Amino acid sequence: xxxxxxxxxxxxxxxxxxxxxxxxxxxxxxxxxxxxxxxxxxxxxxxxxxxxxxxxxxxxxxxxxxxxxxxxxxxxxxxxxxxxxxxxxxxxxxxxxxxxxxxxxxxxxxxxxxxxxxxxxxxxxxxxxxxxxxxxxxxxxxxxxxxxxxxxxxxxxxxxxxxxxxxxxxxxxxxxxxxxxxxxxxxxxxxxxxxxxxxxxxxxxxxxxxxxxxxxxxxxxxxxxxxxxxxxxxxxxxxxxxxxxxxxxxxxxxxxxxxxxxxxxxxxxxxxxxxxxxxxxxxxxxxxxxxxxxxxxxxxxxxxxxxxxxxxxxxxxxxxxxxxxxxxxxxxxxxxxxxxxxxxxxxxxxxxxxxxxxxxxxxxxxxxxxxxxxxxxxxxxxxxxxxxxxxxxxxxxxxxxxxxxxxxxxxxxxxxxxxxxxxxxxxxxxxxxxxxxxxxxxxxxxxxxxxxxxxxxxxxxxxxxxxxxxxxxxxxxxxxxxxxxxxxxxxxxxxxxxxxxxxxxxxxxxxxxxxxxxxxxxxxxxxxxxxxxxxxxxxxxxxx
Length: 544
Ligand code: CFM
Description:
Blueprint: H1 9-17, H2 22-31, E1 32-34, H3 63-72, E2 78-83, H4 86-91, E3 115-116, H5 121-126, H6 129-143, E4 147-152, H7 154-159, H8 163-174, E5 177-181, H9 191-205, E6 219-225, H10 231-242, E7 245-251, H11 256-260, E8 267-270, H12 273-287, E9 291-293, H13 299-313, H14 316-344, E10 349-352, H15 357-367, E11 372-376, H16 382-386, H17 398-401, H18 421-429, E12 449-451, H19 456-466, E13 470-473, H20 475-482, E14 488-490, H21 502-518, H22 528-532
Parallel strand pairs: 2-3, 2-4, 4-5, 6-7, 6-8, 8-9, 10-11, 10-13, 11-12, 13-14
Antiparallel strand pairs: 1-12
């Protein structure tokens, strides 16, 4: 462990900013915050969801990635066609992280295919709509899918192809659900804009198309669980053991049929607040389904989330069954913690990931005694850092105005409040956190560093200063970090490990971290001649 107690976080911030020209330092200065948790969990304001300064190496992805790769990617029976150059489709073909389990071999699963219009120079010059129509027709003829979605890449927006006109025309012609997304990579400041665009279209074109509720007494949806490395499989199994029916997951291990009936469930549980809080809000307004924030990353968090769900339905049998599952699982979890904690305790973690995991994974580190000394999101908004309480004070800028905000009204026939006002009052009084998310910062100790959209330079300096035992990030950062002698766990794909959700996943995580932070190999990354400053081999030319 480094002597982090003697490190002054404000001085670290100055160190990080020192290399920048004054204008850049001023902007980054507002995105690097020394956390300070006051009374009533008040935290300092952070600058977030703003454009990355050109020239800085960011961890971020693009809007298309957020829409196609993240939100729609894990749904197995929609043919997702990328309208654009082949690279965009290929690099968002996430077969490793997006797992799915069709119930039978005859069920559609298109996730093993990569569909693209493969735009060439000719289409960039003369337009690509004809090629897009042909691609939709070809996919229809080959697969007869229930639905086809079309995703716009940067050149599509630049040349002005109208994907919505094409999808409308083809929907009429082929008689299946076909819809498009204006999710050009440049459309927003990050993949966050892509989530919003994806969710708007799913809400307009898919959710609510089938009013027949599937069987099940206690029916919920999981929102913002993308089945990375198989996480959703573990969550599904847990819910089933407790007696809770999962109507739809947006969108890990999902199908379009599940999306279409999602509005008939009785509760929405939000895992990743950043990517999907819009859907939770819209379903509530239109159909009357309330939502709560849950977290299935971390054993304690999993237990807490299951208890919240069971409490919502106010059925003693369900509550008892849930408690029995928790008790059984926690025994194994505590045994694993006891074994691993002494080897990991007080080793420092840093997490710089996406828009929710930098928060959720702190839970797992805490459970084996590892403090998170610095954390941040790539693209989250202020509410993900500071909590939803700041929503009314977030300024809308030109970039966020660029993304459509749907006006949603209660449905004239189908709006059905799921609770009587008595029940709601009772639950709220007992602490049921409807429509709440406290954010990451109130749960981090004071004097930790919170950094939005961290740059490569800042990551390197942080590692030099704190010498963390582990740094969690993604594939773009992984090898640069490891070359500095610090192990890096990818939290976007779990490298080749995981799943990490629920109780069984927590144990796998403890074991993974134990192996990584206690491997002696990291001390050997520096070569002998780098350590001594002198060459270890000398040679003299002796001539012939
Ligand atoms: Fe939500 Fe995600 Fe994340 Fe995200 Fe992502 Fe992701 Fe992520 Mo990578 S939706 S914000 S855009 S939890 S792809 S499944 S791992 S950056 S922290």
